[in-house]
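ok so i was messing around last nite and threw this chain in just to see what happens. nothing serious, just curious
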Amino acid sequence: MDPRQQARVDLAAVLRWAARLGLNEGVDNHFSVLVPGTEDRFIINPHRRHWCDMRASDLVEVDGDGNLVVGDEPPEATAFFIHWRIHTQCAHAKAILHTHMPYATALSALEGGRLEPIVQPALKFHNQIAYDDAYNGLALDSAEGDRLAGALADRRIAILANHGVITTGPTVAHAFNDLYYLERAAQAQVLAYSTGRPVQRIPQSVCETTFQQMQADRDDQATRFLAEIKRLLDKEEPDYAD
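result:
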């Protein structure tokens, strides 16, 4: 398959899967990927379309000035300013997924909220999360997009105070793998907090060792996870690839 079409199919697949998992919020939030072979265009879900029946052909392509290159309607302004400024300033962010998913967003609403090393999935993100602790309103201009890109810097993930999360990666598969496991780790943490009992933190030395072990398997896990998502969609909702 042509790399540009493959990027569209992959993005449509994870949008649908995110909707199945309840990681979306109404018709808001946005996923994007740079157009393969370019550095000045990206593919993103269209303005306020629900993710549950998103198709590859529904996705739009936008240039660095916000001009619509392919598609019927440009993305909402916050989608453009968040995604384009991060794509531009963070070289590792070929794919960018932004959600208000429930449990990770709950952590963002806690004063000094941090993902704690209390369950194994959290160790995937050891020293990989940037925390933006100052909610600054909607991202309606380049300055706010630049501020968020600066907060992310070279980290894979940003947790945005009172807002939600951003995951990034070299591919859609990598970014979605992180999005999924981040929410699972946050869910376990919120549930642990709800008991009112002290949490048991994993020692830093074990966190580092386990992170390195997980890194060795990261590419394979991310690739296979997306392949399995598409295998299931091929059987149940094959029009996602249209």
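not much to say yet. The radius of gyration is 17 Å.
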